[in-house]
Write a structure and sequence with these properties.
Mean pLDDT of chain A: 91
CATH superfamily of the largest domain in chain B: Rieske [2Fe-2S] iron-sulphur domain
Strand content of chain A: 5-15%
Oligomer: heterotrimer
Strand content of chain B: 5-15%
Number of domains of chain B: 3
Helix content of chain B: 25-40%
Strand order of the largest sheet of chain A: 1-4
Shape of chain A: globular
Number of helices of chain A: 19
Distance between the termini of chain A: 68 Å
Low-confidence stretches of chain B: 1-16
Number of helices of chain B: 7
Number of strands of chain A: 8
Order of helices and strands of chain B: HHHEHHEEHEHEEEEEEEE
Helix content of chain A: 55-70%
Strand order of the largest sheet of chain B: 2-3-4-5-10
Chains: A mainly alpha, B alpha+beta, C mainly alpha
């Protein structure tokens, strides 16, 4: 085809689309939209693309899977189960794995994609948290993202349970026990969900509907909202020369980002497919069909549920007690319902908690460098440490056998460590951040170390420092440094108590928790002073704290 | 383009200069000068990049071909599982690697194309505050006010209130009512099991279709047998019943038992519920030397020497004991049903 | 050997009484022990050689007459199977105290193990070393074996026999590479923490089924690729992060880096 005919065909198509849906307006609005470039902005895309892979492979699986626990005798390829009475769900999962070409591959890709989906959501949240991308105006997207993360865990657990194998059935048994533990209504909810007692005959088909229809529907709606907000609010960007709170610096959607982001979908697919090709995942044939009396050593959930399982393993039994003839299973409620609530509620509300401490109501489109917000970074690392310790607890039996340790010792140690290590992680992280900030100041004030050592006539040694250029310097001095809020006086001049004064006190406390320790960026005046000192012969100037420094004008 | 970021602390006036005539903050120096890529200045490099992109796309085509060929060429049938497993392994690997190449090739090619050949000069787009202008906001408010007035929401409270009064029960009532038939009420189901007095203890029919009964002399000291009540396979909801009635039968030296457990034992043979009192996993790990029972799910440990008291882990209650004896023919039978609910805790358990 | 020689000077009568008592216990034990507690068929020479080996290697803990002492169990009536298992897998003689005797390289020859077993079996009847037919996997039903394994073994040894944790540092060992004879012997004798599965609770045919199942697990190709240790979701989670997410982040870094 010659170029002219191609152009003509494209023109006709464009005309057709424009006259029907006003495509030209859409192209004008979207095609040249600028997206900033950074590897960490791709984490959310990994999650999105894993979700698409899950939809594609999941549809394939539904063609063969039978959501029923009706009994059937297994007669497929796998001799080790020949003649056993199993559920149709289990038999059909085996058959789609062993008797359908590519079926096993699809199942394995689906499961790997699920693990990566949740892992990508989690790392994406870390990125958003530590860079402060959740700040105004993006609080809604933070909440949507948090809800998506929680739903992803539920969706994953539902999918993991569908094959009705021994391991997933054990997981469902535990889930039913958690429901039973809910005070007052637990047994009723459990009976309604399971259509009677555990395991019953209703749950697998119901879970199937939830897994393939209800939750994916909610996912699609929430992801759409998440992405629309992303476009409307434009992407955040890292600070740097030329990047401001009022611009976006990067590459246009068409063609650069279409190629990059579109290409990245195929990269994610390729890597997930490779994992499905090479690594066995969830070998349900080896677990055997679910039956309530057998169990296997090393009964674990998929990794994203591991922290809850770990919390359950650590909780001591004395938390169960009787009240007025009723049983309150604190040993289940605390780790399985209360701790997840205590972890997720502050997470969802975090943008407002921090807004409260900063008193900052401005829009933020420039990201923070994590070191410049030491308290937030410390809190984040503290939460991650807590999470990781629970996750490790979930694998205490595997650790015991592989490191030849006593499972009792591991559990007892972790019971202590979950209280001790996270606060420690907070303090250490905060100190590291402050240290890095001091180093930044040092670099701005005295320049970069060149490694060239001079000896003066007096025999003193000093290293030559090369001053930073203005582009390099900008990254180190561009950030805001918040100071603790002063509470407004509790009483006015006439001694009348101001309403909300107590509230303000809490707010001031929170604010000083966040910003008491801080290192402020170098100002031009300080740099000037440092230069003078250099000329005066001093070879080292302390990177100083606010506390050691005279107050600066203008604050 | 303005790069003024109006930095400063909320509530404080931004001073532009301090004493000495220096600005209070550094100023954004603007974008760094653009550095050209090899492909921008060297046509050879550009040509090379073009060939690399094409090679990656070609790799994708090869991957697709591999997948299609593998699909037809590798059979997953065979005479034995050993053979089928080998074939499955080959099939899964080839199909997967083919798919991986087919997708990764396109992805890597597209990204490489964008990185090396599409313009890499950074562009700037201006942001605008999310909020509308004051004028927009006033217009919007006016529209809303006008619309509300047209609808008469304020003037006709009866309509508003009756609508609310209709919506609240609609969103609460039908969902609850319509979900009622998803399951029966718990009734007594959680507190009772299939066990009845005189019922024989038999091997699990899943491994032993005949459901062999058990005599005391079948058990050596240190023996453990997973048993079920006789006839459970004919129960209406077999698995539901097994999930509550599974029992472990263990023979110890009678001296190792305490008095309470000895009362329900027969010549050192004891029967305890196999269902964990914590979360219902089968507690089946019996340590013959320590007489501990361990749950593999959360490591609750029960001590047989102390009537299955919890000595470690998250469980609270001991495993319920099933009192046993022998019938006239010498087979082990339940002396009485469980005297308490077997399995995990629930509110009404008491 | 001097210590032994000194002990031989113990009054013979006392030893005879002890032996008699033990014999009675053994017979009584055998009466309640179902299955084929095989009468010793080993030659007197074997027994004598075995006794020598016993005195040199085992008597420090188990006593001169295998009567046991303190926490060390009596070996009277444990049968040849127990000796063949414990010594044949290198667990005995115990090399160091610990939560449990580990499987190590056996330092005795097959002949010596057989002699030791003959000696212990001569003390009182007990489970014998299984015959080749008893452990013939080809006579076992793999599917039935998988069911029995899952009901009776998987809770400790994991679904594929890869082992698992018990309390306080004890563990159920990995069954990979364990000979069918040792598997059989472990079932009938219940070594260390393991319960006893005599021929009434798991019939000889069922034992063969289990052996057939374990052999199939060991020899079959994992159809889905590298098995990641067959220990369940823990290793899968590690791989998802360490391989999957790492590769993806690597690609993202490449994507975000400026071309040179």
């Amino acid at each position: 085809m010659s170029t002219t005919t191609t152009a003509k065909a494209a023109g006709n198509l464009g005309n057709w689309a424009d006259e029907r849906v006003g495509a030209s307006k859409g192209v004008k609005f979207l095609a040249r939209k600028i997206f900033p470039d950074h590897w960490s902005f791709m984490l959310g895309e990994v999650a999105l693309y894993s979700f698409i892979i899950l939809l594609l492979t999941g549809v394939f699986l539904t063609f063969f899977y039978i959501p029923s626990v009706g009994h059937t005798v297994y007669t497929g390829s796998y001799e080790q189960l020949a003649g056993q009475t199993v559920s149709e769900a289990y038999a059909s999962t085996l058959s789609l794995s062993f008797d359908v070409r590519g079926g096993l591959l699809m199942r394995q890709i689906h499961h790997w994609a699920a693990l990566i989906f949740v892992a990508a959501i989690v790392t994406h949240m870390f990125r958003v948290f530590f860079t402060g991308a959740f700040r105004k105006p993006r609080e809604i997207n933070w909440v949507i993202g948090s809800v998506l993360a929680l739903l992803a865990i539920i969706e994953g657990f539902a999918g993991y349970s569908l094959p009705d194998d021994l391991l997933s059935g054990t997981g469902l048994r535990i889930a039913s026990s958690i429901i039973l533990a809910i005070p007052v209504v637990g047994s009723y909810i459990s009976f309604f969900l399971f259509g009677g007692q555990f395991p019953g005959e209703e749950f697998i088909p119901r879970l199937y509907t939830i897994h393939v229809l209800l939750l994916p529907g909610i996912f699609l709606a929430l992801i759409t909202a998440h992405l629309i907000l992303l476009v409307v609010q434009k992407h955040t960007q890292y600070p740097g020369p030329g990047r401001t709170n009022e611009n976006v610096v990067g590459y246009p959607l068409f063609p650069v980002y279409m190629a990059k982001a579109g290409g990245f979908f195929f990269i994610v697919f390729g890597i997930t497919a490779l994992m499905g090709a090479l690594f066995t995942i969830n070998p349900i044939w080896a677990y055997g069909a679910y039956h309530p009396s057998p169990v296997t050593a090393g009964s674990q959930p998929d990794w994203y549920m591991g922290w809850l399982d770990g919390a359950v393993r650590l909780t001591p039994g004395f938390l169960e007690f009787q009240v007025l003839g009723f049983t309150v299973s604190g040993n289940i409620l605390l780790p399985a319902l209360i701790i997840p609530g205590l972890v997720t509620m502050p997470m969802i509300l975090y943008p407002w908690i921090e807004q409260w401490a900063t008193g900052d109501k401005r829009e933020h489109h420039l990201l923070d460098r994590p070191r410049n917000v030491p308290t937030r970074t410390g809190l984040g690392v503290m939460a991650i440490t807590f999470y990781l310790l629970l996750l490790v607890s979930g694998g205490n039996d595997i650790i015991a056998t592989h490191l030849r340790l006593s499972i009792n010792d591991i559990t007892n140690s972790l019971r202590l460590l979950v209280f001790v290590v996270p606060p420690l992680a907070y303090v250490v992280t905060k100190r590291i951040c402050l240290g890095l900030q001091r180093k930044d100041r040092e670099k701005v004030l005295h320049g970069r170390e060149t490694g060239v050592i001079y000896r003066t006539e007096e025999g003193e040694f000093f290293e030559v420092h090369e001053p930073l250029g203005e582009h390099d310097r900008w990254l180190l001095v561009q950030h805001d440094s918040f100071r603790p809020l002063d509470p407004a006086p509790a009483e006015d001049e006439r001694g009348v108590k101001r309403p909300g004064a107590r509230f303000d006190k809490v707010k001031a406390k929170l604010s000083s928790f966040y910003f008491e320790d801080r290192i402020e960026p170098v100002t031009p005046a300080e740099l000037e002073a440092a230069h003078h000192e250099h000329h005066g012969g001093h070879e080292a100037v302390e990177g100083s704290d606010e506390a050691e420094r005279p107050a600066l004008a203008g604050h | 383009m303005s790069i003024d970021q109006s930095h400063g602390h909320p509530g404080s006036d931004v001073a532009t200069t301090s004493e000495g005539g220096l600005p209070e903050r550094f100023e954004n120096p603007g974008l760094e000068p653009h550095r050209h890529r090899m492909a921008d200045v060297d046509p050879k490099a550009a040509k090379r990049a073009e060939r690399q992109v094409a090679a990656l796309f070609g790799l994708s085509t090869l991957g697709t071909i591999l997948l299609i060929v593998a699909y037809y060429a590798v059979s997953i049938e065979g005479d034995s599982w050993a053979e089928i497993a080998r074939q499955l392994r080959i099939s899964t690997t080839l199909l997967g690697v083919g798919l991986a190449l087919a997708t990764f090739g396109i992805g890597a090619g597209a990204v490489h194309w964008a990185k090396t050949l599409m313009p890499d000069e950074e562009r700037i787009e201006l942001r605008h505050p999310m909020r509308g202008t004051d004028e927009d906001r006033e217009d919007a408010l006016a529209i809303l006010r006008e619309g509300s007035a047209e609808a008469g929401v304020g003037r006709r409270p009866l309509i508003r209130n009756s609508l609310l009064a209709a919506l609240v029960p609609l969103t609460v009532g039908p969902p609850i009512v319509l979900l009622r038939d998803t399951g029966p009420l718990p009734g007594n189901d959680l507190s009772t099991t299939f066990w009845k007095q005189g019922m024989a203890l038999v091997h699990d029919p899943i491994t032993d279709e005949t459901g062999r009964k058990i005599k005391p002399e079948d058990l050596t000291i240190g023996s453990v047998v997973h048993v079920l009540p006789e006839g459970i396979q004919d129960a209406e909801h077999e698995l539901d019943e097994i999930a509550k009635a599974a029992v472990l039968l263990i023979r110890l030296n009678p001296d190792d038992l305490d008095e309470t457990s000895r009362a329900g034992s027969y010549e050192g043979i004891v029967a305890y519920s196999k269902i964990c009192t914590h979360m219902g996993c089968p507690v089946a790990l019996y340590e013959q030397q320590t007489h501990h029972l361990l749950c593999p799910c959360h490591q609750s440990t029960f001590d047989l020497k102390q009537n299955c008291k919890v000595i470690f882990g998250p469980a609270k209650r001991p495993l319920p004991q099933l009192a046993i004896t022998v019938d006239d023919a010498g087979y082990l039978v339940a002396k009485s049903p469980f005297t308490e609910a077997a399995g995990p805790s629930f509110w009404e358990r008491g | 050997m001097t210590a032994l020689a000194a002990r031989r000077r113990h009054p013979l009568a006392a030893a005879a009484i002890v032996l008699l008592g033990l014999l009675v216990t053994g017979v009584a034990y055998a009466a309640v022990t179902p299955g084929r507690a095989q009468a010793t068929t080993a030659s007197a020479d074997d027994v004598a050689a075995g006794k020598k080996l016993f005195l040199a290697n085992c008597s420090t803990c188990h006593g001169l007459n295998a009567e046991g002492r303190n926490e060390f169990p009596s070996l009277i009536g444990v049968g040849a199977a127990a000796v063949d298992f414990q010594v044949g897998t290198g667990r005995m003689p115990l090399q160091a105290t610990g939560p449990q005797a580990p499987k190590v390289v056996n330092k005795f020859s097959d002949e010596e193990v057989r002699q030791l077993a003959a000696y212990v079996a001569s003390l009182a009847p007990g489970p014998a070393v299984p015959s080749a037919e008893d452990v013939d996997a080809s006579k076992g039903d793999v599917s039935n074996g998988s069911l029995i394994f899952r009901t009776n073994c998987a809770m400790c040894h994991n679904f594929n026999g890869k082992g698992g944790a018990l309390t306080r540092g004890k563990y159920a060992p990995n069954l990979e590479g364990v000979t069918p004879t040792h598997v059989y012997e472990a079932m009938v004798t219940g070594p260390q923490s393991m319960p006893v599965f005599n021929d009434s609770t798991i019939t000889p045919q069922e034992k063969r089924d289990i052996i057939a199942y374990l052999q199939a697990v060991e020899t079959d190709t994992p159809p889905g690729g590298v098995s990641l240790g067959s220990i369940g979701p823990v290793s899968e989670g590690l791989v998802a992060w360490a391989v999957g997410l790492s590769l993806l982040v690597g690609c993202a870094v490449w994507l975000g880096a400026k071309a040179s």
